[in-house]
Design goal:
CATH topology of the largest domain: Rossmann fold
Number of helices: 9
Number of strands: 5
CATH class of the largest domain: Alpha Beta
Number of domains: 2
Order of helices and strands: HHHHEHEHEHEHEH
Strand order of the largest sheet: 2-1-3-4-5
Helix content: 55-70%
Strand content: 5-15%
Distance between the termini: 34 Å
Bound molecules: CO-5-methoxybenzimidazolylcobamide
Shape: globular
């Protein structure tokens, strides 16, 4: 097995501690941070994403794989920045005001990160100002909102209305998701896209950006 395949396997099997060794070795063997990212870390996460879609793995396995991926990313981040690897796009993601559910949002954030997007996670209970100010500061391409409660999903409209009021609606793509959210709802409140899960969010943003 090549060293990049070992890294990929570490992600698939969620080996957070073990991933350090093959990454160090890959660097010594002359692989670039980009190779390690694309052929090791992202390749591993793609396998997990497909298995998840087929119902072969569940949320805990995905989170454990994502943890290993994040550890790997930390180890190559400096080299990535130095080598000027371009992100596929910048996404500001958060759970809307009044809502503290973050498991689904974290999954979307991790999958996007794993697919090569720059992700700024602003957490839970996020106000419209926080979404908008962060998106402006980070020169984001996308504002991504999650809601798990029927009582908080309407806040997505508040954020979109605020964007319109500030004349910023066309500056960002707005993607919404979460258990009670539907395609119809997102269209009604003026968002751009709805996706039902994290893998579809990645596929969609890959196409859009
Ligand atoms: Co709460 N909760 N909860 N809860 N909770 C639900 C959502 C609920 C359906 C349970 C129920 O009654 N059957 C219900 C909502 C009812 C409704 O509104 N119709 C509910 C309620 C009522 C509440 C409280 C009000 C309970 C109370 O205090 N009386 C309270 C609210 C607190 C608040 O937010 N202000 C509350 C609290 C909590 C906990 C804190 C205990 C905990 C959250 C812990 C945490 O997130 N850190 C919790 C949990 C765990 C749940 C359930 C059991 C699981 C949610 C979850 O994480 N699912 C949930 C019941 C259920 O769903 N079975 C429930 C796994 C996760 C991977 O799925 O988040 O749907 P999900 O994400 C999916 C997709 O939706 C999508 O991708 C993910 C998978 O790929 N997705 C996106 C999500 N965001 C996306 C964004 C995108 C794209 C896709 O683009 C931006």
């Amino acid at each position: 097995m090549s060293i990049l395949e070992t890294i990929k396997e570490c992600v698939i099997n969620g080996k957070m501690k073990e991933i350090q060794e093959p990454i160090t070795k890959a660097k010594e063997e002359g692989y670039s941070a980009k190779d390690i990212l694309n052929e090791g870390l992202i390749a591993g996460m793609e396998v997990i994403g497909k298995e998840w879609e087929k119902g072969e793995v569940f949320v805990p396995e995905v989170l454990i794989a994502a943890r290993a991926l994040n550890k790997g990313l930390d180890l190559i981040e400096d080299d990535l920045v130095a080598s000027g690897v371009e992100y596929k796009g910048t996404v500001v993601i958060g759970t809307v005001k009044g809502d503290l559910h973050d498991i689904g949002k974290n999954l979307v954030a991790l999958m996007l990160k794993g697919a090569g997007f720059k992700v700024i996670d602003i957490g839970v209970d996020c106000k419209a100002e926080t979404f908008i100010e962060t998106a402006l500061k980070e020169e984001a391409d996308v504002i991504a909102m999650s809601s798990l409660l029927t009582t908080t999903m309407m806040y997505m409209q508040t954020v979109i209305d605020e964007l319109k009021e500030k004349g910023l609606r066309d500056k960002f793509k707005v993607i919404c998701g979460g258990a009670p959210v539907t395609d119809e709802f997102v269209k009604k409140v003026g968002g751009d896209f709805y996706t039902s899960d994290a893998v579809k969010a990645v596929d969609l943003l890959k196409q859009v950006l």
